[in-house]
Amino acid sequence: MIRLSFSITLGYQVLSSPCDFIFNFHPAITDRQRVLEESLTIRQDVIAKKLSQDSHGSRYLRLQAWPGELTLDYQGIVEINHLHANPDTLHEMPVSELPLDVLTYIYPSRYCQSDKFASLANYEFGSMTPGYHRVMAIRDWVTRRTRFVSGSSGSATSALETLLDHKGVCRDFAHLMIAMCRALNIPARFASGIDYGADPSLGPTDFHAYVEVMLSGRWYLFDPSGVTEPMGLVRLGTGRDAADVAFANVFGNVSATAPLIAITAIVDSAQGLDLPAYTRDALSSTDQHCTA
């Protein structure tokens, strides 16, 4: 079991009013990811409303702010009891067996133009046996051919551009892997989160993007950027691509400072709390088993 303590500070200068915000920085609540403690301090006199999305546990905060400084400080402790599965037992599902709400994750989306990747995906992976190991081969292919370069892409960079540029940040790795999976009719979705264990040389702790792929009716974790082990991922939101899971959507005239994020692992062998580490097992942070 993994227990992680983290903090997030977001700062804004609201330049005109009113300005609306929709945040997605609270950790998602699933049957295997629990929030043990949390607190939120908002430095501006606003009315904030919490919202949740029952289908995958994502939580949101909506507020309207006024001219001046707006600061949000979140503190939380999350416990994750991953489901471990033998990779050899996980299979890809035919489209005819996919649940209706999963079909959106095999279609092209704004940043994952999977319809443009069909020939490439079939050339690289079409002859492989479908299943977990083929998905891992896609993950490794993305990791090998793409260099992690901070600041090398922007909010409009898509999987096609990452394919051509051979470089990007975590969201670009995720978009490329998702596009390749969907081109083979494998449901794949974008996950936003915070990661424990990334190399400090990559810079300050930041929000992180990774991939969840459906195999044998359950969503499994993959990090194509390779900056951390999946066991150290805290899920915030899930969607078709980055457009669905921004940590902040801002509607108004605002300037922002870079997020300040810190994360630590709580290790206690007596309580069965381990340090996030590599495992050969397939990992899922939900027990939800989807059926047609």
UniProtKB/TrEMBL annotation:
Domain Transglutaminase-like: 162-226
Pfam families linked to this entry: Bact_transglu_N_2, Transglut_core
Organism (species): marine sediment metagenome
Protein name: Transglutaminase-like domain-containing protein
InterPro entries in the cross-refs: Bact_transglu_N_2, Papain-like_cys_pep_sf, Transglutaminase-like
